Amino acid sequence: MNILLSNDDGFQAPGIVALCRVLRALPGVRVEVVAPEHNNSAKSNALTLHAPLYVHQAENGFRYVNGTPADCVHIALTGLLDYRPDLVVSGINNGANMGDDTIYSGTVGAAMEGYLFGIPAIAFSQIEKGWEHLDAAAAVAAQLVSQIGGHQLDGGKPWLLNVNIPNLPQGQIKPPRICRLGRRHAAEKVITMPSPRGETMYWIGGAGPAADAAEGTDFHATAEGHVAITPLKVDLTDHETLGYWSQGLQHLLAGSGAD
């Protein structure tokens, strides 16, 4: 199994180093690392279109790009690699990617880029920042990759999984649960402070607490010590309200005389 490994914390982050080590220890697995040069958290699916990108190789063999997580996977799949990977893996992220986080997450963005190219993909994150019990999280990730990474699932169609792992010793991590995404409250207030030149600097506030952490959500599962696995898709269409908007807009447009 050929795995393309990326992340959003940068190629030197402990999470990707630990994950690469355990994946390469799996029998019959080849791992190629193409990751951002620097931390690119919250870059989502952004691609760099108005600046050149460069690829360099570190002493440990990891290749790194002066771009976003999606840039890394995109470049790898469209010319850098001379083969098509069987699986794209992203992480392990330093902090949770649950609920609304998935919209912003560079970790999920890297995995999603592989999914958009028709390749199965998994994004891995630890719930708390700080890398506590990282080896346990890496072992869980390797086990999941070993169990499902090389199998044809869902009729052979590509799939995208978002996996969040509690920061617990391996013996205390409970079995995976398939979950839906929860929801967060609005983010905390923006942080302001004066710059050395007297201008006001703005820093994006922290993520809000969980608003929907009901049973069945990723928030609920991880709070109970389980690994949360959420299948994701890219279709943002609000299918439930298509009929409402179709009828409503027809009525409004008719009233305005529009064609």
The proportion of strand residues reads 15-25%
Widest sheet: strand ordering: 3-4-2-1-5-6-7-13-8
How many separate helices?
A: 7
Helix content: 25-40%
Largest sheet: 9 strands, mixed
Cα distance spanning the termini: 55 Å
| Fourth CATH level, the homologous superfamily | Survival protein SurE-like phosphatase/nucleotidase
Q: How would you characterize this protein structure?
A:
The chain is α/β, with parallel strands linked by helices and 259 residues long. The chain has one domain: 3-Layer(aba) Sandwich (Stationary-phase Survival Protein Sure Homolog, Chain: A), CATH 3.40.1210.10. Helix content is 29%, strand content 24%. It contains seven helices and 13 strands. The strands form three sheets. A nine-stranded mixed β-sheet has the order 3-4-2-1-5-6-7-13-8, sandwiched between helices. The chain has a two-stranded antiparallel ribbon with strand order 9-12. Helix 1 packs across helix 5 and helix 2 runs parallel beside helix 4. The radius of gyration is 20 Å and the shape is globular. The model has no long low-confidence stretch (mean pLDDT 92).
Task: Give me the secondary-structure topology.
Elements: E1 2-6, H1 14-24, E2 30-36, E3 55-57, E4 63-65, H2 69-80, E5 87-93, H3 101-104, H4 106-116, E6 121-126, H5 134-148, E7 160-165, E8 174-178, E9 183-184, E10 191-194, E11 200-203, E12 210-212, H6 218-223, E13 226-232, H7 242-256
Parallel strand pairs: 1-2, 1-5, 2-4, 5-6, 6-7, 8-13
Antiparallel strand pairs: 3-4, 7-13, 9-12, 10-11
Helix pairs in contact: 1-5, 2-4
